[in-house]
Design a protein that fits this description.
heterodimer; A: mainly alpha; two-stranded antiparallel ribbon; 20 helices; about 70% helix; globular; B: mainly alpha
């Protein structure tokens, strides 16, 4: 099974796996990526989504998907429990806000740390099995975490009301440095700089820089000998064992790294909105990460971010549409036809946008297993072939006139 | 003692549902080698077949009666159910028994859905890795549940058991138990028995079992195994659909019913052992009963929250101690 995945996706990732890791090209791609992310407020303007809340979401889910891709894209282990690490990260971050300080730095550290610890415990057990058994084990652990967060762990998680920062939490560190008591619950800050509320784009740049850092680390892992080991796990564990290498420690290491990414994403969520609810841990949330990664292109560097961005964009855009808006769009059609068109198309937008998502996802899995990245690759090679074929046609005619050459 | 018996009884109907879904999953997995994440959605579709049958049977005709006036002076509306108008008392019985009747409708409908699914989508995924199968059927499950949501709305729709079966019966003296749950338990036993008998005593079943053991050799013997597997997929869809339809009086169906049951039934399959039909059935009932025991106050006192996680906990322990599950065969899904 692992070998099959590997062949399927190695076709899909012409520049991630097989191409020799060229340092200059990597650096260039990384610079392009960083500039593209940081300039999002500009180029998302024409798309109508250049508001901080949306861009933060892209940065957060991008980080989450990058981390998931390190596990699934490289080793082929399909985890259905990543939302649990996200939730744990959120809870840890909010507790850090409550007990230590409203500064975002300790919150991020604790979120990442707890995400990693949780992943270490779950991974240690789950990685004893492979294939679908691994998926079921991670799913079972995540569901346990979700159910417990709703019931017995209510003192820690505050159950259905979600964990929130309130005015008179202890906040030991803040008190030590003589922070002034406020009339309402304070907002997360970065050494005094407010990150939410009317902070505008600051919160976004904060998340964006974190995601760029996460992307850089993921790129280093892809290019490292460690990344090579992970690909070996996906290709053939048996052969790896024959060569005297034990795949388990490598798989566990990347599982923990992946859990830390999820914990980081969870604490970023808590930073931009200091609130942690258990619904973040439900297995459908884990499924969403899977969708993002596959849609973008698993096993590629940029794919997960593209997938996260695409899904979040569709979510925002499709939910906006309702029947009246569709009616305006199709008003050029005769009444009877436009009514029918509107009622059919309204199934796919608004509250029903999940239907569109499910359909797109199915089409991608069926026809484009490499996701958006494979699609783009096919497109560019098609364009290149067209231009080169016209070139060769002209050169052929040139050859005909000068046969001696 | 009574408390123990009550908990066992309580677990039986839920266990029956788990067993039926897990049975279908195992059949599909054992024959087609496909991990079907849309199986919970089939259960949900069956439940909504029951909802639609009930809705169709209670269609009303409205006539205005000028001789009678409502208190505010407009002609009174006389509503008659069409089924009663056409069939008289038989129609009334039909409406009352809409849930059992819906099974008759569910069989052809689910068979059709199953065949369309297999021919239209699943057959292209036989040779693809399991991860792809999981992903595409997961997408299909989302699509199916969103379609149901678009048609029936997001709220759960309650269904009632026939009046004669809606009460309770005394199983042993002093222990009252809802009759419909008892009916569900015996229904699930019947279906399971029928499926096993079908596999065990018919030529078709023999070929299917042979195919589960060694597909290649069966193909070499000149038997068209693919066509039989298509029928098996339809059969599994029927089982899931009937299980869903009959379950509606116990749990009002809504659109994400399938997802809830899917996770649990996968756990059941894994506990029972991938590819083992008796294992799936046994694990279904065992987990159902364990779950109802964990919900006892006396147990919850010592292990708070155990009722929420017992199934997953059992699954984790089983997978670590007996990686093949209770009755798993060697060589199934071990690569």
């Amino acid at each position: 099974m692992n070998a099959a995945i590997a062949t399927a996706s190695s076709k899909a990732q012409p520049h991630a796996g097989e191409a020799p890791p060229n340092k200059g090209a990597d650096l260039r791609n990384f610079a392009i990526f960083a500039v593209a992310i940081l300039s999002m407020p500009l180029w998302l303007q024409p798309l109508g989504v250049a508001y901080p809340a949306f861009m933060q979401k892209i940065a957060i889910f991008g980080t989450l998907a990058i981390g998931f891709n390190l596990l699934f894209g490289l080793t082929g282990y399909l985890s259905f429990g990543h939302a649990a690490f996200l939730g744990v990260g959120s809870y840890a971050a909010v507790w850090s806000f409550k007990l230590l300080s409203m500064n975002a730095v300790p919150a991020l550290i604790f979120g990442t740390l707890f995400g990693g610890l949780f992943a270490l415990a779950i991974g240690f057990i789950s990685l004893r099995r492979t294939g679908i058994y691994f998926s079921i084990l991670t799913l079972a652990f995540a569901q346990m975490a979700y159910n417990l967060a709703y019931s017995v762990l209510t003192p820690i998680t505050n159950g259905e009301t979600a964990l929130q920062v309130v005015k008179d939490d202890p906040r030991v560190l803040d008190a030590m440095f003589g922070a002034v008591g406020t009339s309402s619950a304070p907002v997360p800050n970065l050494f005094g700089m407010a990150l939410t509320g009317d902070a505008g784009l600051i919160g976004f740049y904060f998340c964006a820089l974190l995601m760029i850092g996460a992307f850089y680390i993921s790129m280093r892992i892809f290019r490292s000998p460690f990344g090579m080991m992970l690909r070996a796990i996906k290709t053939n564990q048996q052969r790896m064992r024959f060569t005297g290498l034990n795949p388990r420690p490598y798989a566990l290491a990347v599982f923990v790294v992946s859990g830390m990414y999820a914990g980081l994403a969870g604490s970023m969520m808590a930073v931009v909105d200091p609130l942690a609810g258990a619904e973040r841990m439900q297995w459908t949330a884990s499924g969403e990460v899977v969708l993002m990664t596959i849609l973008g292109g698993s096993g590629t560097l940029i794919g997960p971010v593209l997938g996260a961005g695409a899904i979040k964009y569709f979510e925002v855009k499709l939910v906006e549409y309702n029947k009246t808006k569709l009616g305006e769009i199709f008003s050029f059609l005769p009444d009877s036809i436009s009514d029918a068109v509107v009622s059919v198309s309204s199934l796919f937008v608004g509250g029903g946008w999940h239907l569109t998502l499910g359909l797109i996802f199915m089409l991608v899995v069926i026809f484009l297993p490499g996701g958006i990245v494979q699609g783009l690759g096919k497109l560019t090679s098609w364009v290149r072939r067209r231009t080169s074929s016209s070139n060769s046609a002209s050169s052929k005619s040139a050859d005909a006139s000068q046969p001696a050459e | 003692m009574d408390a123990v018996i009550i908990q066992i009884l309580n677990g039986l109907d839920k266990g029956g549902a788990y067993a039926l879904i897990a049975l279908g999953l195992t059949l599909i997995f054992g024959t087609l080698g496909v991990v079907n994440f849309a199986h919970g959605a089939l259960f949900m579709l069956g439940a909504f077949v029951a909802v639609s049958v009930n809705g169709l049977l209670s269609l009303e005709s409205v006539t205005l009666d000028p001789t009678k006036l409502t208190p505010w002076g407009t002609p009174a509306e006389i509503r008659t159910k069409l089924a009663e108008e056409w069939f008289g008392t038989f129609g009334t019985t039909l409406i009352d028994y809409s849930v059992p009747v819906s099974i008759v409708v569910a069989i052809p409908v689910m068979l059709l859905i199953g065949l369309i699914m297999e021919r239209g989508l699943i057959q292209f995924f036989y040779k693809r890795p399991h991860a792809d199968q999981i992903l595409v059927t997961f997408g299909l499950a989302i699509v199916l549940q969103e379609i149901v949501k678009a048609i029936f709305g997001a709220n759960s729709i309650s269904q009632s058991a026939p009046a004669s079966l809606a009460g309770t019966i005394d199983v042993i003296s002093g222990v009252a138990y809802p009759t419909w749950r008892m009916v569900y338990f015996f229904f699930s036993l019947t279906v399971i028995g029928a499926v096993i008998a079908f596999l065990q005593f018919t030529t078709f079943g023999m070929v299917v079992r042979a195919g589960m053991a060694d597909r290649e050799t069966v193909g070499l013997l000149g038997i068209n195994i693919e066509r039989r597997f298509t029928i098996v997929f339809g059969l599994a869809a029927i089982i899931a659909g009937m299980a869903g339809a009959m379950y509606t009086p116990i749990l009002s169906p809504d659109y994400h019913l399938g997802m809830d049951f899917l996770v649990l039934s996968f756990v059941v399959v894994v506990v029972g052992g991938m590819g083992s039909i008796p294992g799936a059935v046994a694990a279904g009932f065992i987990l159902g009963i364990l779950q109802s025991f964990a919900a006892m106050e006396a147990v919850k006192q010592y292990f708070p929250g155990i009722d929420q996680i017992i199934i997953y906990l059992v699954a984790i322990v089983i997978l670590l101690v007996r990686p093949r599950g209770l009755m798993g065969r060697k060589g199934v899904m071990e690569t």
